Amino acid sequence: MAFKTNILLSLVLVFAVPLMVNAFVWNVGDAAGWSSQTPYDYTYWSMGISFLVGDDSLRFVYDRNTTNVLEVTSADYISCNATSPLAAYNTGNDTIQ
Ligand SMILES: *[C@@H]1O[C@H](CO)[C@@H](O)[C@H](O)[C@H]1NC(C)=O
Ligand SMILES: *[C@@H]1O[C@H](CO)[C@@H](O)[C@H](O)[C@H]1NC(C)=O
Ligand SMILES: *[C@@H]1O[C@H](CO)[C@@H](O)[C@H](O)[C@H]1NC(C)=O
């Protein structure tokens, strides 16, 4: 019985830890990183995650020679218009809240 209680407590702790952390940095694409060259389903990647807007950050890791990150408005995203980005990143390793 004590053994079972310990397992239950361990599970509770494991699941409770992420809830106590205010800010989490998500590596976009996990190990695949951020790339337009490699086929990767970023929509599928993001479906499994509950992002805490205002707390969490997205980290984009990519080859800066071939790729960058542009932050655009929702309307510009939908119309695929990157002429006036809100922000542009090109270090190859950018963390954006
Ligand atoms: C990016 O370009 C620089 C300068 O040409 C080169 O040294 C570096 O290896 C390149 N990085 C990648 C990931 O190809
Ligand atoms: C893209 O956005 C810019 C700046 O908001 C705007 O001037 C331009 O007309 C837009 N282009 C298209 C094709 O919608
Ligand atoms: C990106 O930057 C973070 C924070 O500075 C660092 O911990 C991480 O190792 C870097 N990742 C790569 C792939 O350079």
Automatic annotation (TrEMBL):
The family database entries (PROSITE patterns) matched by this protein are listed as:
PHYTOCYANIN
Query: Which UniProt key words apply to this protein?
Result: Signal
Q: Which residues form the signal peptide?
A: 1-23
A GO molecular function assigned to this protein is: electron transfer activity
Q: Which GO terms describe its cellular component?
A: plasma membrane
Question: Which InterPro entries is this protein grouped with?
Answer: Cupredoxin, Phytocyanin-like, Phytocyanin_dom
Q: Which Pfam families match?
A: Cu_bind_like (PF02298)
The source's superkingdom equals Eukaryota
Q: Which chain positions lie within coiled-coil regions?
A: none
Annotated ranges, domain Phytocyanin: 24-97
Entry protein name: Phytocyanin domain-containing protein
UniProt organism field = Papaver atlanticum
